[in-house]
Known about the structure:
Blueprint: H1 7-13, H2 27-37, E1 50-55, H3 56-71, H4 89-105, H5 113-121, E2 131-138, H6 143-162, E3 166-170, H7 177-184, E4 190-199
Antiparallel strand pairs: 1-2, 2-4, 3-4
Amino acid sequence: MTKTMTVSEAMCKRRTIRGFRPEPVAEDLLKKILETAQLAPSNCNTQPWFLTVVSGQARDKLEQALMAELISGKTPTPVFTLGDANLEGIYKERQYACAADYYQTMGVERADKAGRNELMAKNWQFFGAPHVGFLTMPSTMGPVNAIDMGIYLQSLMLLLVEHGLDSCAQGALANFPDPIKEIAGIPEGHGIICGLSFGYADEEAKINEVKMDRADLKQSVKFVS
């Protein structure tokens, strides 16, 4: 009898994967995972999330279109403020440390601007994943609704881990919404919160050797009694 993975085990096993094998996820398995993710809680049961999953030829077409936007130097036009827009202090330091770990693992020096740009461009190539999902909500909604989106996203990522899959949540995929609207057909009036590249991890990919640490509990939690 197969042992069911606990939530704690899924939390410990889950990490951001940036190298994937090309084989797609079976449609019936993906639907099973997404049906369970629908059980995520939300404020007043509003369920503001909508997920558009792009695969196959549409995925490849979208990658080409997004890379064309990037190469052209087009100014990003996200609907919502990106997560790295107003970072200061320890939060900015953590962001820099995260990037530095990836550059170091991939042998890219800080002064190598071309190498850093090439590594960054992998975001819009979905890190080679066979599927990419775009998590959207009505553009009239705000931070409180975004909490629900985060709950749904975390639920989905843990469910993927439970079924032997991995993922990478990407705020960068909200930068160029026009090709996504055209090719993926996200709902009218919705804005992209983030993208989620997912599939089976390529265990041989060097980029997947990076493992991020976490802040000590006392930096994030306070007990008052």
